[in-house]
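Subject: for your reference before the review

Hello V.,

The reviewers asked for a structural picture of the protein, and I figured it would be easier to keep everything in one thread rather than splitting it across files. Below is the amino acid sequence we used in the manuscript, unchanged from the supplementary table.
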Amino acid sequence: MRRLLSILCSFIFVLGVQAQNDRGHIRLGNRLFHQQKFEQAEVEYRKAVGKNSANPQAHYNLGCALFAQKKDSAAVKQYEIAGRLEKTSRRKAMVFHNLGVVCQQHQLYQQAITAYEESLRNNPNDNETRYNLALCKKLLKNQPRQNQNKNKQDKNKQNNKKNNRQTQNNKNQDKQNPNNQPQPKEQMSKDNAEQLLNAAMQEEQATQQRLKDAMRQPQRRKLQKNW
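And here is what came back from the structure prediction:
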């Protein structure tokens, strides 16, 4: 009986050491993350995952470290694992919030909406997630219009290239046939006016696009220290 108790105590102690090592890597990774040493933090979080692959906090924090390094596809995989493993509503909401942020930054608005809705189901009081969800719905609604604007820009560029080629051909013809009569000044002025108008329209569209890109930036959930 004493020997059996001793074996059980040893087994519990081993499990305790493993869990402690797991949490230790996470704590060290958190310190490195907040020092913006994201690559080193990634190493510690991967060690934590190696110690306990069923630890949702390790996967979530690893996703954050990857996301901070712009390794978005790898971050998504870690967030998805954390979302399956996590049982706490508050933490589950954070996982899907960050998953939505990644999708939103890549203009995958429908996927972002799905992630934000899942986040709000677990934490209905999160105003950041609610804001991002509303923004994604608006951007998804306006996306066909943005695609039309992009097509117009491409068409204008093609027209400008065509005009430039025509102008170059006219110059070449003038060189080859110096006795040809020059083009009327009114026609040349009209061509120049159209080119200036196209350039002005493209600049205005570029300005509007920069404003839209600024609006697309989602509010991002920061890594929580207690994780």
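For the response letter, the relevant points are probably these. Confidence is low (pLDDT under 50) at residues 1-17. The longest helix spans residues 127-176.

Happy to draft the paragraph if you're swamped.

O.
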